[in-house]
Amino acid sequence: MMRLFLDANILFTAAHNAAGKASLVIELGEAGLWRLISSAYAMEEARRNIARKYPDRLQRLQTLTRDLALAPADAAIPCPASLPEKDCPIYRAAITCKADILLTGDIRDFGFLMNDRSKADGLLIQTVADFLSGL
């Protein structure tokens, strides 16, 4: 079964927009099409940002993340040189849990790694739109 690692901004977007593509990915994962994984680090970042920007969506975020598998970030895993330090725990957790795909909307920081497994230790990093269009 395909393993999808969800970055904080994917969790945030799904909580904020119930009719959006990020929500669809989570719904399809809950239906058994793929395995959904995130990390405590990503979940806390999503929670913090939702609480600040859309506090009325906190309950939805909790519901969406209730059954997510959580992966630790192995600090021994090297991060790509140009990836900002704040994103290394996300990258490391995705590698640690052997995710097939890391879904993120963070094109600014992850953009140089997107859609090229050879740059990310075999991990495919994609936006939700790219992932869905590739199905």
Would you give an account of this structure?
The chain has seven helices and five strands, in the order E-H-H-E-H-H-E-H-E-H-E-H. The chain is of the alpha/beta class. The chain has one domain: 3-Layer(aba) Sandwich (Rossmann fold). It has a five-stranded parallel sheet, sandwiched between helices. The radius of gyration is 14 Å and the shape is globular. The relative contact order is 0.20.
Concise summary:
With 135 residues, the protein is of the alpha/beta class.
Helix and strand topology:
Blueprint: E1 3-6, H1 8-16, H2 21-30, E2 35-38, H3 40-53, H4 58-65, E3 69-70, H5 88-96, E4 101-103, H6 107-110, E5 124-126, H7 128-133
Parallel strand pairs: 1-2, 1-4, 2-3, 4-5
Helix pairs in contact: 1-2, 1-3, 1-4, 3-4
Strand element count: 5
Q: Name the helix and strand elements from N-terminus to C-terminus, one letter apiece.
A: EHHEHHEHEHEH
Separation, N- and C-terminal Cα atoms: 14 Å
Roughly what is the average pLDDT, rounded to an integer? Answer: 97
Largest sheet: 5 strands, parallel
Strand content: 5-15%
User: Looking at this structure, what is the CATH superfamily?
Assistant: 5'-nuclease
Structurally, the number of domains stands at: 1
What is the CA-atom radius of gyration, in angstroms?
14 Å
How many DSSP H or I helices? Answer: 7
CATH topology: Rossmann fold
Provide the spatial order of strands within the biggest beta sheet.
3-2-1-4-5
Class based on secondary structure composition and strand pairing: alpha/beta
Shape: globular
CATH architecture: 3-Layer(aba) Sandwich
The share of residues in helices is 40-55%
pLDDT < 50 stretches: none
CATH class: Alpha Beta
